[in-house]
Amino acid sequence: MRNDMADPEGPPRKGRLREEGMAALTLGALGVVFGDIGTSPIYAFREALGQAAEDGIVAGEILGVLSLALWALILVVTCKYVLFLMRADNNGEGGVLALMTLAQRSTRRRRTLVMALGAIGAALFYGDGVITPALSVLSAVEGLKTIPGLEHAVSRGEILLITSAILIGLFLMQARGTRVVGRLFGPVCLLWFVTIGGIGLIHIADQPAILAALLPHNGVLFMANHGVAGMFVMGAVFLTVTGAEALTADMGHFGAKPIRTGWLAIVFPALALNYLGQGAFALHRLEVAAARGIEFVNQDWFFLMAPGLARIPLVILATCATVIASQAVITGAYSLTRQAIQLGLLPRLKIRQTSEHAAGQIYLPTITMLLFVGVMVLVLGFGSSSAMAAAYGVSVSGTMVVTTCLAFLVVRRSWGWSWPLTIAVILPLLLLDLFFFGANILRIYEGGWVPLIVAGGVGLLIVTWVRGRKLLLAIDQSQAIELEELARMLRARPPERVPGMAIFLSSGMEAAPSALLHNLKHNKILHERNLALTINTVNQPVVPAAKRLDMTNIDENFTRAVLNYGFMESPDIPRDLAFALRHGDNKLEPMQTSYFIGRSTLRPSKHSGMPFWQDLLFIFLYRNASDPTDFFRIPPNRVVELGSQTTI
Questions:
Q1: In what residue span(s) does the K+ potassium transporter C-terminal domain sit (predicted)?
Q2: What average pLDDT does this structure show over 285-293?
């Protein structure tokens, strides 16, 4: 979910290829979509070979590990994501929550199960979001120790200090936005892929026997000969495909064709060449070690492939590439959080727009702080990329399992596939995902528990918020009166009228807003025009302007209105009401309009339906949710808040 939100008033998605150009979109995708998976060669092969070399290593094992890595890229990324999942878009949008809403539209009986799967996938993404910046940037900076003359001159503490400084700068940059510097992301990543592919090609030419790794039987033989130990290697091999979920998550911004083109024409060839080059270099070092009668040592193959002082620009380029990959993950966390808020999975958070031109350029201070703290704890706690690599993979592989389960519901219910076709496609993908998930679960004791703790914490917040909101809504409905009934009562006994328009925010579409009832109870007045407004999030990314507002006239005093938003949009009530009501008798006059918002003070109860501690957690989340005035972009000087006390 690392995408800029499309402008609801902007051009149709299908016209974007023609307007921006295929080459420009493909170049842009290189800097956003492929940053994570594109920086995996820095550490993935090293970690996989390290697992295989614990009891010594022979040439067949290098070929086997490399074969597993290459075929993981082919099966997981190319077959599953590029050829299959990128077809399962929700009006052009992808990602786990977009897939969740698409699955919800196609099934009615399993909506709770679908939402639970989406929530699990979202929670696991945050676990990935904490690890990616820490692991990728640290692994790039560690390349300093491969530069001639710096092997012993740079200490571990200095590596951590440099990494921390880069990450601090990255997170400080978020508040200013990345629109200007973001224009460099695509060209830098293009240079990155050309460089790593070229370096790999040089070593392949020196050791062409490494091309045997393209044959899948080498990987099969490796697994057959290593048993349970092979599963630990597979957990490290999975590092080669982390970041694959970005291919679907960013479809809304770049489109499927540029992403497919970028992967098939640039990224996959570059990754394959680099991994083959690392394997060729390792094979050469193995032959040298055998000839000299010395022990083979697993090393930083990625950086050592570059000759001597050429490693200096390579380290700089790798650092830039990992910063770009980290930025993509942070942006993805922002985008996913906004979607979760709109879908009611998380409480409202403060969202700041950092660009007047790009709606997707947003900044969430709370998410930024939580990610920063988590990233710094991992960097300082683990101390090295090798120690941290074991923590990577559990959350990503779990997300992939969830994605495949949601895809099953989509192809069966929405696309209408037959059972034989569904099983033939989904079952192999699910077994592959479960295989990788099982391999990563084995590494929990090495650090894999970290993303699970993060995901568990986020999952707890989601469950608490969803359950608490349901309880609160049930209480409101039990005390509510229908708007039509209230209108009849007021016609029989009309209160004093005041000029202007009153807009009452309501959580329900039929009941009279609580703020309206409190206004009548305490102020005993009614405005000339009264609008009961409900904000509704639909199961599609963006709502066209023509379908933004639904209005129903109750009588001459009251109108019921529903503002519809997609889960990729940020609500702006004054702007959208003014646009929708720009003509006719209901024309919105900003200086004659007051917004009434109901605000409840919650008190815990031992009989709420939730454990007492969960009541307290929900109340904490409710109290600290972003003010609706800020979230809905309502002018503060036009807002009246009316409070009440509620026991849940």
A1: 499-648
A2: 90
